[in-house]
Amino acid sequence: MIEVVRPGPLATVQDLGRPGRAHLGVPCSGAADGPAFRLANRLVGNPEGAAALELTFGGASLCFRRAAWIAVTGAPAPLRIDGRAQGTHAPAHVPPGALVELGTPPSGLRSYLAVRGGVVVDEVLGSRSCDLLSGLGPAPLSPGDRVPIGSTKGLGDITVDVAPPPPLPETPVLRIRPGPRDDWFTEEALDTLTSTLYEVTPDSNRVGVRLEGPPLARAREGELGSEGMVTGSLQVPPSGLPIIFLADHPTTGGYPVVAVLASSAIADAAQLRPGQRLRFRL
């Protein structure tokens, strides 16, 4: 059992989400940075999809009521177990009754704390993920919450000592593919998008990364009928400022999508923090 002493700015339970239900209006949700989430589970010998904790901007304090193995990946939040510094991106043993604390990461936004055996909150529609937009799944963690740890029976041995973290660039360059509604914008709009810096605004969240920068000019008036949206879509509202859809995005939308992130760029987008600048490239 894990007792939440302090959750930090935002702590949620996540797994790989609810794929395949968008036609029912159910978002996929799940870990925003999929590669970091999967790595945390592999480091403690879990299946890649075992539920873990997603911690935004660190700041969490967790009391483990029994011994456990954990791994922290993603944004490199300083990790301490009973006051003793531990490395991230590596398995770490937690004695019974120990306090696990995460500081504020110097770069990135979201850290993942996997526990050997996974965390076993109730499933909703086949997933333990907290979806902030739809309200499906467990609520964000609060002080005093108790999170059960699953059984380790049948899990393989822990075989990796450390997995060096990939660098988080100060100014990420996100690869995009034009469309499907780039014809709703002027020819200059795509040039603007790919030649200037954009900055992440403070009102970004797991639904989407909101950006400040040069607006994208439309070539036609009016609005689209609602159509399907995917993670990584760059939807452009009337302000002309694009929004990068993340894990908790709505399943449909009526504003045109000028481009979509390459799948390899979604994890970088999930680690963008307010005030950080980025570029787009075709």
Task: Write down the secondary-structure element order.
Answer: EEHEEEEEEEEEEHEEEEEEEHE
Low-confidence stretches: none
Mean pLDDT: 95
The assigned CATH architecture of the largest domain is Sandwich
The helical percent reads under 10%
- The class by helix and strand makeup works out as mainly beta
Give me the number of helical elements: 3
Using the coordinates shown, work out and report the CATH topology of the largest domain.
Jelly Rolls
Instruction: Give the domain tally.
Output: 2
Concise description?
The chain is mostly beta strands and 282 residues long. The chain is built from 3 helices and 20 strands. Helices cover 9% and strands 29% of the residues.
Task: Please tell me about this protein's structure.
- The protein is mainly β and 282 residues long.
- The protein has two domains: 2-147, Jelly Rolls, CATH 2.60.120; 173-281, Cyclophilin.
- Helix content is 9%, strand content 29%.
- A hairpin with a 7-residue loop joins strand 16 (233-235) and strand 17.
Features:
282 residues; mainly beta; Jelly Rolls; Cyclophilin; 2 domains; 6-stranded antiparallel β-sheet; 3 helices; elongated
Set out the fold topology.
Blueprint (H helix, E strand, L loop, with lengths): L1 E5 L3 E5 L19 H10 L8 E5 L4 E4 L3 E7 L4 E3 L2 E3 L5 E3 L4 E4 L7 E6 L30 E2 L25 E6 L8 H9 L2 E3 L7 E5 L14 E2 L4 E3 L7 E3 L6 E2 L3 E5 L4 H5 L6 E5 L1
Parallel strand pairs: 12-20
Antiparallel strand pairs: 1-4, 1-11, 2-3, 3-10, 4-9, 5-8, 5-10, 6-7, 6-9, 12-19, 13-14, 13-20, 14-17, 15-18, 16-17, 16-19
